[in-house]
Amino acid sequence: MRDQNTGDITTLRSFNRLYTNWLGLLDVHLDGSSFTLSEARVLYELAHRHEPTAAEIARTLNMDRAQMSRTLKRFAHRGFLETHSNPTHGRQQLLILTPTGRAAAKDLDARTQAAVGALLQKLPETRRQRLIAAATMMAQALERKVEAPAVKLRGLKPGDLGIITARQAILYAEEYGWNQDYEALVARILADFHEHLDPTRDAAWIAEIGGEIAGSIFLVHTDEPGLGKLRLLYVEPVARGAGTGTLLVRTCIEHAQNLGYERLTLWTNSVLDAARSIYERAGFVLIGEEPHHSFGQDLIGQTWSLAL
């Protein structure tokens, strides 16, 4: 855990250095204006709030009150700001931008829009899309008041089979040390699923959170009438604990019932504790297990069954 935490800290610090340099946040004046970064943030809050107090802005920006006081004094000296007493709280001063202050805020906003727009234009479209998607995800992760996006299920679309193969191979290598034999197995399973797909007996679901793939599951027919297989359940680490795996398994079971299946089976390994817990809660019963050496590891394979 300590090594992982150290790695996370290093990654975040590296990103912080990269984006502050890229956006020019270390420049003495922001976007060619006369304002420092902290002054620009205060000016933005003043322009987008209705008669705030200094304390409100300080709390929003996590800014020291002494620094806030110095910034407001500079704004008042430049004719950007005026104050008046709060009629409901005599000791509070309400802050109001003057026409000069609003003009300065408008000019700064235009400069920032132009500067960021110029940076984005330098990026190829694919990198630009990835940057915006990542920025959206980071904002959602850091914003305490925003509820986690709901898990949504959809069917397969082009590219999903390759993504699922890659993500499962990467995750099981990182978490369990499995080698590329597992990647080859997943690729074969998914290739067979695509080649022999029967919409009256087979189905697949992709879980998404905030538009990003968060997991998947497959319902596959067998040669035995009334028997189907649940295959390749996986959930991305960021989606674990949100009920994603349970939703995928429940959806697969309900669809199998609707198609008239009498029984579902699945094969897994004993080390996959989280998945096994989901199967048990869904009513699956362990009917057999056997040691084997696969994917570069000594494992215990398990077969589970559910009567529908």
UniProtKB/TrEMBL annotation:
PROSITE patterns listed in its UniProt record: GNAT (PS51186), HTH_MARR_2 (PS50995)
Pfam (any one): MarR_2
Gene Ontology molecular-function annotations: DNA-binding transcription factor activity; N-acetyltransferase activity
Signal peptide: none
HTH marR-type domain ranges (all copies): 1-147
Domain of life the protein comes from: Bacteria
Domain N-acetyltransferase: residue ranges: 164-308
UniProt keywords, alphabetically: Transferase
Protein name according to UniProt: Transcriptional regulator MarR
Species for this entry: Acidocella aminolytica 101 = DSM 11237
Source species taxonomy: Bacteria, Pseudomonadati, Pseudomonadota, Alphaproteobacteria, Acetobacterales
